Amino acid sequence: MAEERGRRPGNPQTRESILEAAIESFVTEGYGGTTIRAVARTAGVDPALVMHFFGSKDKLFEAAINGTMPVALLVEAIDGDEEHLGERLVRRYLGLWEDPVHGPKLAAVVRSAAATPATAELLKELMTRELLGPVARSLSHDHAHIRGLLAASQLLGLAAMRYLLKIEPLASLPADLVVAAVAPGIQRYLTGTLSLAEATVVPR
């Protein structure tokens, strides 16, 4: 069957074009509002080619998450002494949310995860593998996985209040003040004394 005029052939560059179109759609339309046909139309390819590269909408979203979430940039903040790990993580985390490129993408992924169980599962797997794992391995204290989860729960709540719900005055506080207020709590979760001695903790 002859290829439609103007349609791009199936090559790595085409895959990247499809992925860029998908990321744009997921950011602006959300998971529910994104369709394979719309992504294909934006990328200038046949919908069958989207399925050829990604297999399903879920797989396309998984690839978009991996291409959208700046996890590697957050993981870079792990490097350094444990004593100031909390401050480095909070400062980098806020910087990513306030970045004009990364911020809207982060918001889109979190909103999609809150609305769609399948999306939440994909995000959980990515964060566990790519972020919580490296954080836990960097810690020299007991219950490292639980410590990472507690810190992540605080950071996610902070993002929801400051960037998604935009609750004042938190939404307008200078980032440096937020870092100064939040970092000590994150640091305690990561390296301080936790009351988990009697708990049975099964690490993932």
TrEMBL record:
Gene3D superfamilies: Homeodomain-like, Tetracycline Repressor, domain 2. Residues 12-72 form the HTH tetR-type domain. Pfam families: TetR_C_16, TetR_N. Keywords: DNA-binding. The keyword ATP-binding does not apply. SUPFAM superfamilies: Homeodomain-like (SSF46689), Tetracyclin repressor-like, C-terminal domain (SSF48498). Residues 35-54 bind DNA. The keyword DNA-binding applies. This is TetR family transcriptional regulator. It comes from Nonomuraea rosea. The lineage of its organism: Bacteria, Bacillati, Actinomycetota, Actinomycetes, Streptosporangiales.
